[in-house]
Amino acid sequence: xxxxxxxxxxxxxxxxxxxxxxxxxxxxxxxxxxxxxxxxxxxxxxxxxxxxxxxxxxxxxxxxxxxxxxxxxxxxxxxxxxxxxxxxxxxxxxxxxxxxxxxxxxxxxxxxxxxxxxxxxxxxxxxxxxxxxxxxxxxxxxxxxxxxxxxxxxxxxxxxxxxxxxxxxxxxxxxxxxxxxxxxxxxxxxxxxxxxxxxxxxxxxxxxxxxxxxxxxxxxxxxxxxxxxxxxxxxxxxxxxxxxxxxxxxxxxxxxxxxxxxxxxxxxxxxx
Length: 272
Fold this sequence. Notes:
The chain is α+β, with helices and mostly antiparallel strands and 272 residues long.
């Protein structure tokens, strides 16, 4: 299994507020508590509209799971927000929300030179394969929050990166009557959500040129040590209400029925 490491960062100062979107994340400079080196990070503070302890836990689980499945995502970190940092935000538009975020928060290492991915963007063969893996990943974690209105994607060094997973593992907050009876089946709601996915139209059009075996291969090679590593890394304050066992059971059920999951995706979404 790939080495999964979670660094902790002390927030020092902010240099930009992302005014668009519900959470308005901060771009900050912080100091790594292990190596004592400064760096730039994106802070998703818990006082934001859609962020709380459980959202931080979902972000962390999804980021590490994506990394194991060969999907590019900024390195996740824990960011400590203290009173001194909060004071630097006084007078800003998000000061009241940041003031409620003293303690640990989810963040990620900032990747410079990134540009938003446009719907009309032409993709190389490797990027098309990345798009296929991302589409499968979002079906796996039931993430409907990657669409044309809010792609939650960017390009850097010709690689597609995924971000923002506070709404991942949608089965946790969906009425049981609206869920498929088994985790690997796609019901009409799943199909509708998939149809709105940022990459769906592209992948349906290019379905016969995508190497789907290659796209699914990381799922086939998934290592169960991921779960024990997550038990170790996720802060207890985030895990207490995360329904970790429910996530574990759902994802494992899909992995145990991977052939059926592949058939569902192909027959209900991609076959023409």
